[in-house]
Request: fold
Amino acid sequence: MTHDFLTAQQLLDSKASKEIVTTRMDTTVQDACKLMRTHRLGCLIVTNGAGQIEGIFTERDVVNRLVAEDKDASDTKVGELMTRDVIVVEPERNLSEVEAIMKQNRIRHMPVAGSDRLLGLLSIGDVLASHAATSQQMVHHLTEYIYGRH
Reply:
């Protein structure tokens, strides 16, 4: 399937890890960073008790709002640093639109949510990997066509 017709949900489904790692606003930045390191993530989705998205906590938030402002990670809560205005896409959104939204808003992570729940998280790396896989498939098919292999 080409990149233009692939949906956010289809890309989520193709990811090796289906785990959704979240945190809460009252988590310390230190604990959130340990969680990010453990799971090798660049961000965490911040949810409330009902699982609704409250914000997103990123490595950029740590640099710009903690380190640069000389705050203490063990004493600062995620809710104080997180980005509150989170752009969320629907699972049916095609990947070209997702990529355009990420570029336009200069963001690297985008939650995918249905009407009632968070479905997963797409990164710009996921989008670029999809591009590479699509290009590789196209090269393979064109090579077979040119050389008459089926």
Notes: The helical segments are 8-14, 29-39, 59-67, 78-81, 95-105, 124-147.
